[in-house]
Amino acid sequence: LEEIPRPIQDSGNILKQGYLEKRSREPSFFGSEWHKRWCVLTQWNFLYYANEKSKQPKGSFPIERYQAHLDPQLRKDSRKKCCFQLLCPGKRSYEFTAASPAEAQDWVEQIQFLLKDLSSLTIPCEDEEEEEEEEEEELSKDRESSDSMNNSQNSTLNLEGLQLEGDDIYEVLPGEIPDSQ
């Protein structure tokens, strides 16, 4: 089920990176273990490395269907407000601890923003497209009737007192001789 670690391929699209503690999947004799990892969020993937100089990730997964949320239940110590979780139905969940509650919040917000952006890239099915086309037609009809009302109101305005002060509104280009001079 685990993705095979591979070198980062979309390094130009790094959205967020930094050190987080990642909870190991297998609990040890002493309970869950947290390991410091250099984590990288790209447009399509979440990758984690042993440190920021590592070339090969220890793990990675496509971020697309995951959900991110703060989860203070992950730890019982003073860092519990720094925890967040990445969940995806049918896939492994990932648990992290940031350096501060604000940093954890920032990771969650960045991931949620990315996921919202990714979901907007989906192409609607035919039924949805037809509904959207009907809505667009109604909106354009509303705009047309609104525009025609505005145009009829504009034509009845008194334009006599609207002389511009100062020079003509047209720009004189070099080499041209103005008519009025």
From TrEMBL:
Keywords, in A-Z order: Cell membrane, Cytoplasm, Membrane, Nucleus, Phosphoprotein
PANTHER family: SRC KINASE-ASSOCIATED PHOSPHOPROTEIN 1, SRC-ASSOCIATED ADAPTOR PROTEIN
Organism of provenance: Chloropsis cyanopogon
Coiled coil: none
GO CC entries: cytoplasm; nucleus; plasma membrane
UniProt feature, compositional bias: Acidic residues: 125-139
Compartment(s) where it occurs, according to its Swiss-Prot or TrEMBL record: Cell membrane; Cytoplasm; Nucleus
Taxonomic classification: Eukaryota, Metazoa, Chordata, Craniata, Vertebrata
SUPFAM superfamilies: PH domain-like (SSF50729)
Main localisation: membrane
Biased composition (Polar residues): 147-158
Record's protein name: SKAP1 protein
Location of the PH domain: 13-116
Residue numbers spanned by region Disordered: 124-165
